[in-house]
What does this fold into?
Amino acid sequence: MFITVHSAIGIAAVSALSLQNPVAALVVGWLLHYVGDVVPHGDEQLGVWCWSGARPVRRLGLIFILDFCLILLGLWGLHFLTNLTGVILMAVLGSIIPDVLLGTEIVLGRRTFSCFSRFHNAVHRFTGITHPLFYGFLFQVGLLILMFVAIRHLLL
It folds into this structure.
């Protein structure tokens, strides 16, 4: 799942729970990342694309940078609707940590966070269901829109 969607889920959950503790928000965002990854979300073909080229780290980096820019754009837009608190920012941080840890291992070329990576990979494969990228993209865009509508109603 794109980290933009993970972030929106984290923000919506922390807002719905009315959390005021930044550490709790980080933990909720982190845990919900794994819950989101259990749901078949159809971006497996991007992984195949990353590894099929001569420079997989660059391709992975490109996807991450584009996705992270979308998070920043979403937070910038959210800033105009409401006050961005440390709790919201910690929810975002927590929700992207699992992918950052996995990406760090890929970039370094060694298992640095192996217990997290094994669990993360197992969660991704839990259902064994995959969808074409087009359907996965539509699902994630729809989920992202739903989360931002929820966030808007929860924070305003």
